[in-house]
Write a structure and sequence with these properties.
Elements lengths: L18 E3 L5 H12 L6 H9 L3 E7 L5 E9 L4 E8 L8 H15 L4 E7 L3 H9 L3 E10 L4 E9 L3
Parallel strand pairs: 4-5
Antiparallel strand pairs: 1-2, 2-3, 3-4, 5-7, 6-7
Length: 164
């Protein structure tokens, strides 16, 4: 399946990185990326398998050099709304718009599915991610104490209303 271009207007005219649909052959590299980004809170190989192959899921990756992934993101497409399951960018590749490009793809995917709301949870101390999501129009609508385990980090719940 060929990646579709992003139509979400966050960086008009700027070409984005090549984003493709994740394959099961990406799982070992996804585990490495998860661990680099989330440490003890990283998902297991089995959870990533379920996320990348599950019904009503869309999971995208960005290839880096030497077969390594530098970014990944997944979304669950529900009946009434979409939920961002993960967005991760290799720490060595952060600050170059990859997270924004992945979010654009997730938002476009939700809109193409006819969903008008996108929800996500983000660690309350992840200032860069909170700023990114706020700059894209997400608003804080809730709080989840001890949401991330085993680190026991709190999460903000954020929502974006989109025109499908």
């Amino acid at each position: 399946m060929q990646p579709q271009p992003s139509n979400h207007p966050t960086q008009p005219g700027a070409p984005g990185p090549p984003i493709r649909t994740a394959q099961t052959s990406d799982l070992d590299e996804l585990v490495r990326l998860e661990q680099a980004c989330f440490g003890t809170d990283a998902w297991s190989w089995q959870v990533l398998l379920e996320e990348t192959t599950g019904a009503n899921r869309a999971y995208f990756v960005i290839d880096g050099a030497k077969g390594r992934l530098v970014g990944a993101a997944g979304i669950a497409l529900g009946k009434d709304f979409a939920e961002v399951m993960t967005v991760e960018v290799d720490p060595m590749a952060q600050g170059h718009g990859l997270g924004r490009a992945l979010m654009d793809r997730l938002i476009d995917t939700a809109a193409q599915a006819g969903l008008g709301r996108v929800l996500l949870e983000v660690a309350e101390n992840n200032d860069a991610a909170v700023r990114l999501y706020a700059s894209m129009g997400f608003e804080v609508i809730g709080f989840r104490k001890g949401y991330y385990q085993p680190s026991n980090q709190n999460a903000l719940v954020m929502e974006l209303t989109i025109a499908p």
